[in-house]
Design a protein that fits this description.
Layout lengths: L1 H15 L24 H14 L2 E3 L18 H23 L1 H7 L3 E4 L4 E2 L5 E2 L1 E4 L3 E4 L18 H22 L5 H5 L13 H5 L12 H25 L4 H22 L3 H16 L1
Parallel strand pairs: 1-2, 2-6
Antiparallel strand pairs: 3-4, 5-6
Helix pairs in contact: 2-3, 3-4, 3-10, 5-8, 8-9, 8-10
Amino acid sequence: MRSIKIYLCIILLAAACKKEDDLGDVSAIPGLGGDTWAPTAIDNYIKTNFTDPFNVAAKYKWDQGELDFDKTLTPPREEKIIPVLDAIKKVWIDNYVAEAGKTFMQKYIPKFFVLVGSANWNLDGTITLGTAEGGRRIVLYVLNDFRIKGMPGYVQSDSVNIKMMFHTIEHEFAHILHQTVLYPEDFRRISVGGYTSNWNNVLDAEANERGFITAYAMSAADEDFVEMISIMLSEGKAGYEAIVNNIASAEARSKLREKEAIVVNYFKDVWGINFASLQTRTRNSINALIK
């Protein structure tokens, strides 16, 4: 009986697909090499400014497979792509190149950017503005809210979104740096016992009084380290000093100064980067977009 069933299966398969059957043009099936399009101004911009000099790809065409399937997200509007990428180049890439050299950025810059129009909301009510995965891929959200000086509808309050975007980028890149060469162990000891998974229930001002630059810095030592870097760069020296000087607790101010010193020395000793100069360049580039 078993041999009869196998024989019947062979007959059915032979009947279903004959050698002479026309399968059509398989090259026209999306994903198998047939999905082509003419390069646009956006594609040419990415190639000239990101792919050719840094071997970086930026994906703006919608692909849910690149993102969380359980999140409701929207694609970026095309008119936002070049302004966003141009700002990223001027504020982040160009300034690191100026301070550390092009070879440094070619080596450590993530090679794949995924651009998303909307925010990525979490179940606890927090928002993920960006992620970095293994130093190879960065996902940036909320691009549809991006407006800089000179763009239609820009108002001064939009500067908050600009700073948030670069805060995110500097934060994620700082993760890549410390995952390559870890910061000194002394940094972890400064706020030992102060880290908590309930950071989202703490205001930034409250976190400041506990010796953290932001509430999110309270989530873990690694986050504390990269939050220090991202705030110091995105706020500039004057903005950072205003935060520290507004803290009532002398102990909290002392903790932040200890963390600041470790950050500055880490950039100098590990990467040969003058942090003060990078900080000035970065903040000046942000100011050029918003003022």
